[in-house]
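Tokens as discussed.
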């Protein structure tokens, strides 16, 4: 596996207390503004076909999937039960702390696509988690990772907080390449003069693992 050449302290957080404590109380708020949400939805519209089976990783009470598109299955994995239960797009969900338990409880080649929305900055073992995502995706299925310039600073990993937006794109690209599972990697950015920017890194599964 390619080495990210990052020391272990790159993935430490200011608050190293249990994540389950931080996420005990639900947060029924939008973490990006309406324009950035619309950009996420448009990317999903382009990459996730109707009737697909999707994995919504690090999910919450909204998934930003296009309302007019019907999916066969949308599985949410997140940290707060109340948030997941309120999400109308999820057909099923489970609470799981990926920083403690990166292994996903799904079969190989189970999903047609996967999404991580404004949460990649909280993963302390990003390559391990993304390898798991690759395992459960079908060949050529997309993984769409979107993020902005917002975060919970006490829980974002150190390397994320030391980099700017353009470097975040390169970092997520490096995560995907380090898995040796994803290829055809694309990057997009939506940076209006006012409001939240939105960045996306999309890779497709090209190797069995």
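Sequence:
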């Amino acid at each position: 596996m390619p080495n990210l050449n990052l020391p272990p302290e790159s993935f430490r957080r200011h608050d190293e207390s249990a994540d389950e404590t931080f996420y005990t109380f639900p947060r029924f708020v939008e973490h990006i503004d309406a324009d950035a949400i619309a950009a996420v939805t448009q990317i999903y519209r382009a990459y996730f076909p109707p009737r697909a089976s999707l994995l919504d990783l690090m999910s919450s009470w909204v998934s930003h999937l296009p309302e007019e598109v019907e999916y066969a299955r949308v599985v949410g994995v997140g940290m707060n039960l109340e948030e997941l239960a309120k999400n109308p797009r999820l057909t099923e969900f489970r609470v799981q702390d990926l920083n403690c338990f990166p292994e996903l409880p799904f079969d190989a080649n189970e999903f047609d696509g996967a999404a991580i929305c404004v949460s990649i900055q909280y993963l302390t073992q990003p390559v391990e988690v993304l390898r798991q995502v690759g395992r459960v995706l079908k060949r050529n299925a997309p993984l769409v990772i979107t993020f902005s310039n917002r975060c919970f600073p006490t829980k974002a990993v150190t390397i994320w907080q030391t980099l700017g937006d353009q470097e975040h794109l390169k970092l997520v690209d490096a995560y995907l390449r380090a898995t040796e599972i994803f290829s055809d990697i694309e990057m997009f950015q939506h940076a209006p003069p006012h409001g939240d920017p939105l960045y996306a890194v999309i890779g497709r599964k090209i190797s069995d693992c």
